[in-house]
Every structure is written in C-alpha cells, then in structure tokens.
C-alpha cells in the first residue's frame, strides 16, 4: 500500500496552486502567509520527488508530472467537499466553510455585498471568495450569470430580472424628466466593456445588434468606475436600473428611461454539480436567493430555470 503521508490540507494547497499558479495568490485564498504555502509546497515536492512547479517570470508553471495530478486532485477535493457537506447537524451559526463565487461587478457591488452583510450576522464562519475575473470553472462553487452567458449543464435558478436605463449627472440639461431619442444619440457616452478581454458587455453588444450607434467617449471595464466619472460632466451611460437607482443615492446623479425599446436581463444563480447533497451549500444557495428577493423583490426568485 502506498505511503499516505499527504493530508487533505496539502492536497487542497496543491489544487489551488495548480489553479492560481502563484504562491502569493494561493496564500491569499487560504488567508495564510506565503511562507506557510512555501513550506507546504516543499512537502509536496519531497513526497512526489518532483519540482511540481518551476518559475517562469512572476508565475509558477506546473511541471509535466504536476499536470497529470491536476484532474485527480481536483476530483479528490470535490469528493471530500461532498463528504464534508453530508455531515449531520449543519449549523450556519457555527459551521466554517469556504465557497467560491463568480459574479460580475454589479452583482458584487449590490447583491453580494448584501449577502456578506447578512452572513456576518447569521453565519460568521462561512467565507466567500468572490471572483470577478476569469477563473477555472472547477474551482467555482456558484456562478451569478445572465441568461445567455450561463452554463446549460449546471443547475440554475432565477435571482432577479432588470431593465436598462440612462444614468447621468443630476444637472444634465438633456435629462429633464426624460431624454429624447435625438439627445441620447447626440451625447457622449461612457461604455463598459468586459474586463481584460475587451469584449463588449451585454448592453454594448445589444446596442450594436440593434444598430444603435452612439458616440463612445470613454470605455471602462467595471460598471463601478462609471458613477464618479459622470459627476459634473455631460456624459451619459446606460446601465441596469437597480444599479442606477443605488448609485443615484450615493452620487449627485439621476436616471431616466431609455428613449427606445431595449431588452432586459434575467440573472441566474448556478451551482457546480459537485455541490449536490452538500448541506452547507444548499443553505448558502437559499440565503443568496433570499437576499436577492429582499433587494429586487422578484417574484420568480428561486424558481428553477431550464432552457
């Protein structure tokens, strides 16, 4: 029988190192020092008789042998999570668990901030790792995604629906109760494109599909950076209405309806198949849905979604 001198914590470290390719980011994920991760990496190297990772610039690159470990280690961690989640007597007030959630910036700013505040009160030992950039799907437990960008193979439920509106400085002369079609297209706009890929957001892509050509004055990769840019300017931006409503409470801004028909979005909560039967994950899923219902008042919140 093989010498089982590796514990689950070491394999969990290896799993995250393979995903992150960085001792620094792995340490941040676990909330420990870089030195602690380096010690664990040394133990892994000693056990397997392989470098496991070699430096390439600022990244650690997995050796060919380490690449052969990627899938079996991930599967082992998922199986362990299922076993842990099946334990009886789950109590959110005392149970400690980590969950990884992938969400866009608006849902991180609004929905997940509401979730985190709630967890602080009722489940202080549940820790969320919120990912806004591209991350390996295997490391994510929950995804918050709009219909059209979701993964059909994963179970899904509705969180909320929202429509788009125009947001601008509170003194913008073109927004006296409403904005005309001509004023909208005559104005300069701040437009959000998605992250480091530069791909157009749903709003920008839909505008292009509808043939609506605007004067794009500024381009950002996060919705959260737009509101302060609008203050004291004559820029317009087109954003989801609930985000606009909340930003108008924090900045001297106002919002009005778009002067033309524009589709809304339905936002889904999806969960990784490895969470089936996990009591803690089921509790957190319900908590996220209830938080969305409190924020958005969507009657469909929690309803299972299917194509």
UniProtKB/TrEMBL annotation:
The terms under GO molecular function for this entry are: DNA binding; DNA-binding transcription factor activity
| Family membership noted in the UniProt record | Belongs to the LysR transcriptional regulatory family.
Identify this protein by name.
Answer: LysR family transcriptional regulator
Against Pfam families, the record matches this protein to: HTH_1 (PF00126), LysR_substrate (PF03466)
- DNA-binding in keyword set: yes
Q: Please report the organism this UniProt entry assigns to the protein.
A: Pseudomonas putida
Name the keywords, alphabetized. DNA-binding, Transcription, Transcription regulation
Signal peptide positions are none
Q: Which CDD domains match?
A: PBP2_Nitroaromatics_like (cd08417)
All copies of the HTH lysR-type domain together span: 6-63
């Amino acid at each position: 029988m093989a010498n089982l001198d590796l514990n689950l914590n070491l394999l969990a470290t290896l799993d995250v190192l393979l995903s992150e390719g960085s001792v620094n980011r792995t340490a941040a994920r676990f909330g420990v020092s870089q030195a602690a991760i380096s010690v664990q990496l040394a133990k892994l190297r000693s056990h397997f008789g392989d470098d496991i990772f070699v430096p390439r610039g600022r990244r650690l690159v997995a050796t060919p042998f380490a690449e052969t470990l990627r899938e079996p280690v991930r599967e082992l961690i998922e199986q362990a999570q299922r076993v842990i989640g099946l334990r009886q007597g789950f109590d959110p007030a005392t149970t400690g668990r980590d969950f990884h959630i992938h969400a866009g910036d608006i849902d991180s700013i609004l929905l997940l901030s509401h979730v985190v505040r709630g967890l602080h009160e009722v489940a202080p030992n549940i820790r969320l790792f919120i990912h806004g950039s591209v991350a390996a799907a295997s490391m994510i437990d929950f995804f918050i995604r709009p219909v059209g960008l979701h993964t059909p193979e994963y179970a899904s439920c509705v969180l909320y629906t929202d429509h788009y509106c125009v947001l601008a400085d509170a003194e913008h002369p073109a927004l006296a109760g409403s904005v005309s079609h001509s004023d909208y297209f005559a104005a300069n706009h701040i437009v959000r494109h998605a992250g480091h890929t530069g791909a157009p957001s749903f709003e920008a892509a839909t505008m292009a599909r509808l043939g609506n050509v605007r004067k794009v004055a500024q381009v950002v990769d996060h919705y959260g950076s737009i509101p302060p840019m609008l203050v004291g300017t004559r820029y317009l931006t087109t954003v989801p209405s609930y985000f606009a409503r909340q930003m108008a409470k924090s900045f001297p801004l106002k919002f009005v309806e778009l002067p033309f028909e524009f589709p809304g979005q339905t936002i889904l909560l999806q969960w990784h198949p490895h969470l089936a039967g996990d009591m803690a994950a089921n509790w957190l899923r319900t908590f996220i849905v209830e938080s969305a219902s409190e924020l958005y008042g969507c009657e469909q919140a929690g309803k299972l979604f299917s194509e």
